[in-house]
Specification:
With 480 residues, the protein is of the alpha+beta class. Among the domains are: 266-348, no CATH class; 425-474, no CATH class. Helix content is 46%, strand content 18%. It is built from 18 helices and 12 strands. Strands 1, 2, 3, 4, 5, 6, 9, 10, 11 and 12 form a 10-stranded mixed sheet that branches. It has a two-stranded antiparallel ribbon with strand order 7-8. Helix 1 (6-17) runs antiparallel to helix 2 (22-33), helix 2 packs across helix 15 and helix 7 (101-119) runs parallel beside helix 15. The protein starts with 5 loop residues before the first helix and ends in a 6-residue tail after the last helix. Residues 239-400 form the Transposase IS4-like domain.
């Protein structure tokens, strides 16, 4: 067996013998099929480490499925008893600025999605990519680059980071392709990033070589999100990803993104929410803002009710700096507020545009599921490289879960995660109970001045419950 995959192979064998759930068997199967070359990872194996870089990566990906919160809890877990190693091995790997996490994520995505395409019977799926950001709150000031960012959900500055994700969906499954980590410089020169001098001095600082991957990540930290989003899209196209629509909310809908999308040679379009603000659009009704346009459309009785989506709708053709677009207005009920979508696809009607844009919510669901089940943003590494590694691992775990969800017909990622972790939690409990029993027997044997092993065998032979715990613990040890 390939030495880089014996970890997953032994897990497959272990869970197969114990008649475990189909979910964790599927996790093992897909992970065993994924090929990642050492040059893709980018890190160099530590001479004193018995595991290869790929094996360390595999173990890190398995953490949440075995209820391991972080590397410090690894040695006391069921997985830690099967593959013994020290927590420092994981921290060294995660803090390595040479690891090319983007290449790893794309490599795994291509392999997983190729399996999806081979299994699907739908050949004309509309493919969409979605860009959105989310808050990653933190509680301590010692993390590298930490600062305050404005939270649009809490409507106030919070300590933490902003993570921007690029998501791919074909209408059935969704996979995360890329992400960037951002901070905000703040408005006050005497409080950079919203921190006091004492708080700034408490932060961990580290110099990064310009040729390392982490240096490029650091350069994105204060960069424009629109520029970074365009870079993400360029990178996805280079990696072979093709999409029909880019879906964004009103914060990301702008001329720069529109211009980039319509200039692609493979024929993709933008669908984005627009603000009902003061931006003027060139139309046959004149140069008007969105609120002015809807008043003109109401006056001309161009507003229609769509039963299929339950909204009043109106459509108008417009131009933005010479680029032709359609503006589609929506209102729920007669007294609701008007919202509007902008699309570069002039053939889309209001119903189809609404249906496609509704896919944008899958990235909101992905954010929630990663935070709830995969502990997105809870990484306690003080190195910026460690923070990037933590989010990258969440992305890898989510993509694997997304594949298994589709393959095994689970309704939600949360339900799938619960089934996967159930068996590993039961093993961890059995392990702790057994170790406690062994400790008690050793104390009794010392008091009675007898052999602990003999006493253990006598106790087990006379107690079915203890024997069952012992058998569960024995199953944690892989076959030689």
């Amino acid at each position: 067996m390939n030495k880089n995959r014996y970890i997953i192979g032994e897990l497959q064998e272990f869970f197969a013998k114990n008649d475990s759930s189909k979910a964790i068997n599927s996790i093992s199967t897909i992970m065993n099929s994924i090929r990642i070359q050492s040059k893709v990872i980018g890190s160099v194996k530590n001479p004193n480490c018995k595991f290869t870089c790929l094996q360390v990566l595999q173990l890190l990906v398995l953490f949440p499925f075995f209820s391991i919160k972080n590397a410090a809890n690894y040695s006391s877990s069921a997985l830690g008893k099967m593959f013994v190693c020290h927590k420092d091995m994981f921290y060294r790997f995660m803090n390595d600025g040479n690891i090319n996490w983007r290449r790893i994520i794309y490599s795994v995505f291509r392999q997983v999605y190729s399996r999806v395409k081979r299994r699907t019977t739908l050949k004309s799926d509309i493919r969409c990519v979605i860009i959105d950001d989310t808050d990653l709150p933190k509680t301590g000031f010692k993390t590298e680059k930490i600062g305050k960012v404005f939270s649009h959900t809490q409507m106030k500055p919070i300590l933490g980071f902003k993570a921007m994700f690029l998501c791919f969906t074909d209408g059935v499954s969704q996979f995360l392709l890329d992400f960037s980590l951002h901070g905000e410089e703040g408005k006050r020169s005497d409080k950079p990033q919203g921190l006091s001098k004492k708080q700034t001095e408490a932060r961990y600082c580290k110099e990064h070589s310009e040729d390392k991957c982490i240096a490029r990540r650091s350069a994105e930290y204060f960069a424009s999100k629109i520029e970074t989003a365009i870079s993400m899209l360029k990178r996805s196209i280079i990696e072979g990803v093709r999409f029909d629509y880019l879906l964004v909310d009103s914060w990301f809908t702008c001329f720069e993104l529109l211009k980039f999308v319509v200039s692609r040679h493979f024929g993709c379009h933008l669908i984005g929410m627009i603000k009902m603000g003061k931006t003027k659009y060139e139309t046959d009704l004149g140069n008007k803002t969105a609120p002015e346009l809807i008043k003109a459309l109401q006056k001309s009785k161009s507003v229609k009710y769509s039963r299929s989506i339950g909204y009043y709708t109106a459509t108008v053709s417009a131009k933005i700096s010479g680029i032709k677009v359609s503006l589609l207005f929506y209102r729920r009920g007669k007294n609701g507020n008007w919202n509007a979508l902008l699309t570069s696809d002039l053939k889309l009607d209001a119903k189809e545009a609404f249906r496609l844009y509704s896919r944008r919510w899958v990235i909101e669901v992905a954010h929630k599921e990663m935070k709830q089940n995969l502990k997105l943003g809870k990484n306690q590494c003080r190195d910026f490289a460690g923070q990037i590694a933590g989010i990258s691992l969440c992305v890898l775990q989510y993509n694997i879960l997304s594949y298994v969800k589709r393959n095994e017909s689970y309704e939600t990622i949360g339900g799938l995660f619960a089934e996967i972790s159930k068996n590993s939690v039961e093993l961890s409990v059995a392990e702790k109970i057994w170790l406690l029993i062994v400790e008690v027997i050793n104390v009794i044997a010392e008091v009675l001045n007898c052999d602990a092993m003999v006493l253990t065998e006598q106790v087990i032979s006379n107690d079915k419950q203890i024997k069952a715990v012992k058998q569960a613990f024995d199953r944690l040890t892989p076959a030689a």
